[in-house]
Amino acid sequence: MANGKSLLLGVLFGSVVGASVSLLTTPSSGEELRSKVKDQSERLRDIAQQIREDGLDLKNQLTQTSKEGAALLKDLSQDIKVSIESWKETIEPHQENLQEHLKHIEESIKELEDKLKDDSKHNV
């Protein structure tokens, strides 16, 4: 937000300096000069007011967007959590089957190793 304040101050300062230089370098009578200064100051007040309103609108939009983003992230994390739980429930029965198959494979390999040992003893 400090950058926004610096920008606002820079715009206002630049506008004041520009308007002052323009008024002071233009040849005109005192009455015309006062009228121009008054018009310029009113114009600068309007610009400053518009910038202030735009800044407040932007701040409100950012606040609203951050709130919506936080709510969206909360919903998304909840959806992901539900999806993971669902996936776990789907996978669990298959996991048990895979473990059973692996157990049978290990037993079969053990039987083959034992048979190979027995065959090698008989051939020697």
UniProtKB/TrEMBL annotation:
Residues 95-122 form a coiled coil. The keyword Signal does not apply. The keyword Coiled coil applies. It comes from the Bacteria. SUPFAM superfamilies: Apolipoprotein A-I. Pfam families: YtxH. Keywords: Coiled coil. PANTHER family: GENERAL STRESS PROTEIN (PTHR35792), IG HYPOTHETICAL 17707 (PTHR35792:SF3). This is Gas vesicle protein. It comes from Piscibacillus halophilus.
